[in-house]
Amino acid sequence: MSFDSYICGENAAIRSRQPVVEENGFEVSVLDITNPDDAALAMRNIGVTGTGSTIMKNNTVNRVLRVNNITTTTEALIIKQEILARGEDAALERDAVSHETEETDVIVMGTFLQVRKLTDKLECQARNLPLISKMIKEALKQESDVEYCYLR
What we know:
Elements: H1 3-9, E1 20-23, E2 26-29, H2 36-45, H3 50-56, E3 62-70, H4 73-84, E4 89-92, H5 94-97, E5 104-111, H6 112-122, H7 129-143, H8 146-150
Antiparallel strand pairs: 1-2, 3-5, 4-5
Helix pairs in contact: 2-3, 6-7
């Protein structure tokens, strides 16, 4: 089975074929990669070394995480600043930016690598940020745990 078939196979009921544009001998296709190991496989299939694909695989897959009930806007702003410092972003309500609310939710967007770096940084911060770091790591671990996902 080719990598393209493997990636599209899971979504075959949703999308009947992979988006591909061909012109003047070039081809651009959209790969539906949601797992870093699938990204490594795609890279190895085009000749990237095992070492190179292992190093780069966590840069290819994005995750969007929602952190609910952050009890101080300062913590929410620290999360936003730290993920921005890593080239990614976080969304929070406007009133949190001006400290006009006491509690807020944050949506964090980033690659696996950048989110992992964020959690490492949050571990060293004050207040509830080490706990939030631990919870983010646990949520990502659960996502890749087959038993957790399917044997509830």
